[in-house]
Each structure stands twice: as structure tokens, then as C-alpha cells.
Amino acid sequence: MPTHAETKRLPYTPEQMFDLVADVRRYPEFLPWCVGAQVVSRTEGELIADLTIGFKMFRETFRSRVTLERPEHVHVEYLTGPFRYLNNHWNFTAVPGGSEVRFFVDFEFRSRLLQAVIGTVFNEAVRLMVRAFERRAMALYGRDRPGAKLTARPNPGPG
């Protein structure tokens, strides 16, 4: 039920952003509430990963299939865990001075209690997570390049 989509223009190449998002095992180093990550299997175009999310008194692990279409798309398909469903997409498009990053997430927890707790802070939590990816890009690839602007625009969906 909670859905969030946004588009950002960042001063990094689509390849850099793709590599950052595809490096799931490093998520606990920078992503809020991600307390564990394990890549179960990996091929050139796909990985299966377990992520453990900790929020207040809750701690849940879920498994996803992550399809990697270098350098423009990362798609997350939910396999098992606490959700009824989870849809997550990243798109990276080259633009002058960097890339346009489109992010979409839509999910619903099986537990009504967990859904109620997360639902109250969902939008802010997702914004914090997206900003964590931006900060990670800055740490890995450096600050804004001269002339590049960071901008955010609302995005109506994954299209």
C-alpha cells in the first residue's frame, strides 16, 4: 500500500549509480535500518539476497531476487519474508553532467501491526533511504562536479 517514487538528477554516471545500488552486501554500512545483508547467490545479471531490517522493536529478514540490467536498471522481486508484496525499481539515465535516477518502491507488510508502525513514518523513511544512497555516492565518487545540480522532482510511478 505505501508507495514512493522520485526522480533525482545526480552528478554521477549511470554506471556509478548502478554499481552503488547493485552492491547489496554493503547496505548495512550506510542504509538506515538495514542491519544485515547477505548475498545468497550471484550471476552476471541476477543476485539473490537476504536483507535484515531493524526498526524500533522489529527485526525482519526478507529475501529478494535482484535483476541487474547494466547500467540502466535494477529491479527487486520479493521472494520471502514479512511482506505481502514488495516492488522496487531503480532506473539510471545519462544526462549532461551525470545521470537521472528514478526510484520506485511499493510494499505491504503481512503484519497489520508492522504495517501500522511503518505506515506512519513511511514517506520520511524512504526519503532518508534515498538520501543515504546520495550520501554514499558522494563518499565513493566525490562531491558535486562543477556545474552539476542536485534536483528532486516528484515522480508519479515506475513507468
TrEMBL record:
Residue span(s) of domain Coenzyme Q-binding protein COQ10 START: 10-134
Pfam families: Polyketide_cyc (PF03364)
GO molecular function, one term: ubiquinone binding
InterPro entries given in the database record: COQ10-like, COQ10_START, START-like_dom_sf
Transmembrane residue ranges: none
Superkingdom classification of source: Bacteria
SUPFAM superfamilies, per database record: Bet v1-like
A Gene Ontology biological process term: cellular respiration
Family: Belongs to the ribosome association toxin RatA family.
Name of the featured protein: Coenzyme Q-binding protein COQ10
Organism: Muricoccus pecuniae
Source lineage: Bacteria, Pseudomonadati, Pseudomonadota, Alphaproteobacteria, Acetobacterales
